[in-house]
Amino acid sequence: MTELNRYRVSHQSLIDVCTSLFAENGVPLEDAKLTAEALVDADLHGVSSHGVIRAGIYIKRLQEGIVRQKPDLKIVKETDNTVVLDGGNGLGQVVSNQAMELAIQKAQDHNVGIVSAKNSNHFGTASYWATKALEHDMIGIAASNVPPLMPPPSGAAARIGNNPLSIAVPADRVKPIVLDMATSVVALGKVLLAKSRGENVPDGWAVDKHGQATNRPEEILNGGYLLPVGGPKGYGLAAIIDILTGVLNEGAFGSDVHSMYKDFERPANIGHFFMAINLRSFIEPALFRKSVDLYAQYMKNTPCAPGVSEIFLPGEIEALNYERNLQEGVILPKSLVDELVQYGQQVGISDERLQELTQGPLA
């Protein structure tokens, strides 16, 4: 993609415009801001596949009435340590925020908190929710199911989603260790991002509807399949996440989870799983954090292979992206900026505010 087809946009301008877009489409202002912040956070971390590129489809589903603007979140079942939460078909960020807050509160009171949520929608990056636990001296875990995108090993039809998982571990002086992964070789959002940029994807990511290897996003998105990471291991992990996010809460799994891009008749019916582990129930938090620092340094002291200058811990590259993009702004495809401007014009956002997104091509 040429530099003329990209814009560098301030994160605050993105948050402000996206907040207005959601609010003008009937989402309460607090929920609109929460959703916008979660999407922009993904772009700040360099995970653009889960950032504001998703805003358009969120808005379309809100406008079509497939996602509820003002969901009625209900606790279906509760114990000292656990909650089953019905998300009322609200935006995934709204449901996940409530669910993670409940998990953290349970962990503060009873050492461990677990929330399994159903009847929700796409929640962005799993790490955004897992890292909410860090400031409370806790380890955070977040996972979600998604519509079937992968066949089981030796299968010839999609039966399971590339269900994402994040585990966030607090540290002292070094950056937190944050695993965030899809259970496919790559997240579907990266295929969508490549399509928006007019680019092909690397070999080995997916197959077309005939089971033939392809690197063309259109062939992957039109009936093709992503491939599980590590073959049977990725498939097995995805299956366990399906159980935690869809079976455990009497929610949806498999073909009862619907695509937000292809199905405009039925709710997505997505389920999530959140867990917060209070460090104090195991170890003094300050000692734990210092020990994680030592562990991180041990890993970073690994001799590098030829041509490699540094070893990174999970989440470290994304954290460095965040620091840079917070200062410099995030880079977005011109096509995405144009889409946001178009939605903004439809709901009456002033040209002056929208122009903040289009200050000029990337220098």
Question: What features would you highlight for this structure?
Answer:
Hypothetical Oxidoreductase Yiak, Chain: A, domain 1; Wheat Germ Agglutinin (Isolectin 2), domain 1; globular; 12 helices; Ribosomal Protein S8, Chain: A, domain 1; 12 strands; single chain; 7-stranded mixed sheet; 3-stranded antiparallel sheet; 363 residues; alpha+beta
Word description of this protein:
- The longest helix is centred in the first third of the chain and has 19 residues, at 92-110.
- The protein is α+β, with helices and mostly antiparallel strands and 363 residues long.
- The protein has helices spanning 11-24, 29-44, 55-63, 92-110, 126-130, 188-197, 217-221, 232-247, 285-300, 316-328, 334-346, 351-354; strands at 6-9, 74-78, 82-86, 112-120, 138-144, 165-169, 177-181, 206-207, 213-214, 225-226, 270-278, 330-333.
- The two termini are 14 Å apart.
- The radius of gyration is 20 Å and the shape is globular.
- The chain has a seven-stranded mixed sheet with strand order 2-3-4-11-5-6-7.
- The protein folds into three domains: 1-63 and 329-363, Orthogonal Bundle (Hypothetical Oxidoreductase Yiak, Chain: A, domain 1); 71-184 and 230-328, Ribosomal Protein S8, Chain: A, domain 1 (2-Layer Sandwich), CATH 3.30.1370.60; 194-227, Wheat Germ Agglutinin (Isolectin 2), domain 1 (2-Layer Sandwich).
- The protein contains twelve helices and twelve strands.
